[in-house]
Amino acid sequence: MLKRLLFLGPGGFVLLVVVVLGRALTASSSQPPITPLTVAEVDADAVAERLAQSVRFKTIAAPAGQTFEPAPFDAFHAWIDTTYPAVTSGLRREVVAGHSLLYTWKGLDSSLPPLLLLAHQDAVPVEDSTLPDWEQPPFDGVIDDGWIWGRGTLDDKVSMLAILEAVESLWKEGVQPQRTVMLAFGHDEEVSGQGAKAISELLGQRGIKPMMILDEGLVVTHGIVPGLEQPAALVGLAEKGYLSVEMTVAGAGGHSSMPPPHTAVGILAEAVTRLEANPLPAHMEGPMAEMLATLGPEMDFGNKIVFRNLWLLGGIVQGKLEASYSTNAAIRTTTAVTMFDGGVKENVLPQEARAVVNFRIFPGDTIEDILRHVEDSVDDSRVKLKPLGGISGNPPPVSTMDSEGWAVLTSTVRQAFPDAVVAPGMSVAATDARMYAGLSDSIYRFSPIRLHKDRGDTGRIHGTNERVGVENYAEAVRFYAQLISNAAAAE
């Protein structure tokens, strides 16, 4: 179209300018209206103290080949039973797959499909070498200077405890939901998600089809979306699939004084270099397109011109997105060489070299596509390729934006975070939500926490000095209380 307009000369150019400016000038906001919160205020200090206590339970899921330690989980469950007596006495509690938890708050109208809220109990370990860099010990649950410090305060005890706080509060207020509310807390999300899978299978056997499923995921971002002055509350419509590929090269071995032109390590290094130099194609459709279309009208006029005219300027936008690690991950299947080893001694030729490459698969791509891409990129019969098992899987379906669940969720986000604009997006990391695909077409991924670019907050997830603000955590509790109230038509 652009070429045809320019071919028409000055008239075509004028028409082009009119179209571009017209689309920017007519951009209209799709934001839900902001309505006041209707749930009770939260005692920020009290809920913060309970979140801090939960951090002290070292609930670390064991990866394959390591021994699972049940004691911290058992102690955590006992603590929940005593700390949240209304949840314990008022909701049906089931233990699934050993240590995953399923709670059911029965609604007054059994004909209404339930609301299902997800979170996970387990946290990732902390490497001993990083301990001196922590401002507060990672499992001491310290509250200091307005922050709750420790592993799990961002991922994902923050959601789990906020959900429990919300239900406890609503129950004590005498709330009786019309719609059944279910809470599912997996115990091994960080390593396999088998607990969530077992709960999902159980719900499927019971014929339960939730009206909405909400898990952790995207967050309220500050200063992270270029061109947007307000915070952006991003709600994941989808998440990526997962695949790791092992690459191995065999070598003859021998003394390093008589080496071949390329050792096994050298051959493998060249293969890895070729693979990294050939990224999978970018996708500007799907959740990313929906996000840009939603955020565009909220930006300054210059950015409105860009984001309202992606048909013309999409290539420029794609280049900008590709220039940042975080936004590049949102538009393509990513390639990450995460392991590389070979050789046993400095003067001995390696008899084998091995690398592992991790792919986070964009919706629309498949495991088969990735394996074919790796084979074509490496193009060397000496390099043997093997897909690894574990949590590998294709991306789950993209959830709908045309549902009661989406409307209730986005309206609630605006209620809880009135300073933010809400938009769809895509989670680049795997969550337990993928295990529930098939139970609902309204599966969303949103964590009610604020991450600030200028504080380096995104690096704290799974990183050093994980923390959440005391006031932000109180916001999270009120968010879940309001969501339950709205979605369950509480009376």
Low-confidence region ranges: none
CATH superfamily of the largest domain: Zn peptidases
- Output mean pLDDT: 93
Number of helices: 15
**How many beta strands in the DSSP annotation?**
15
Number of domain modules: 2
Give me the strand/helix succession.
HHHHHEEEEEHEHEEEHHHHHEEHEHEEEH
Q: Tell me the fraction of residues in β-strands, as a range.
A: 15-25%
Kindly report the oligomeric state of this protein: single chain
Helix content: 25-40%
The CATH architecture category of the largest domain equals 3-Layer(aba) Sandwich
The CATH topology annotation of the largest domain reads as Aminopeptidase
Question: CATH class of the largest domain, anyone?
Answer: Alpha Beta
> What structural class should be given to the helix and strand makeup?
alpha/beta
Globally, the shape reads globular
Gyration radius, rounded: 25 Å
The end-to-end distance, rounded to whole angstroms, is: 55 Å
For the largest beta-sheet, the strand count, sense and barrel status come to:
8 strands, mixed
Report on this model:
By secondary structure, this protein is of the alpha/beta class. The protein folds into 2 domains: 44-239 and 395-487, Zn peptidases (Aminopeptidase); 241-281 and 332-387, Alpha-Beta Plaits, CATH 3.30.70. The chain has 15 helices and 15 strands. It has helices at 2-7, 10-25, 44-55, 71-83, 85-90, 157-172, 194-205, 264-276, 287-295, 301-307, 310-322, 325-328, 367-378, 404-416, 470-487; strands spanning 92-96, 100-105, 115-120, 143-144, 147-149, 181-186, 212-222, 232-239, 241-250, 334-342, 352-361, 383-387, 421-427, 443-452, 467-469. The strands form 3 sheets. Strands 1, 2, 3, 6, 7, 8, 13 and 14 form an 8-stranded mixed sheet that branches. A 4-stranded antiparallel sheet has the order 10-11-9-12. Strand 1 (92-96) and strand 2 form a beta hairpin. Helix 3 (44-55) packs across helix 6 (157-172), helix 6 (157-172) packs across helix 15 and helix 14 packs antiparallel against helix 15. The longest helix has 18 residues, at 470-487. The chain starts with a helix and ends with a helix.
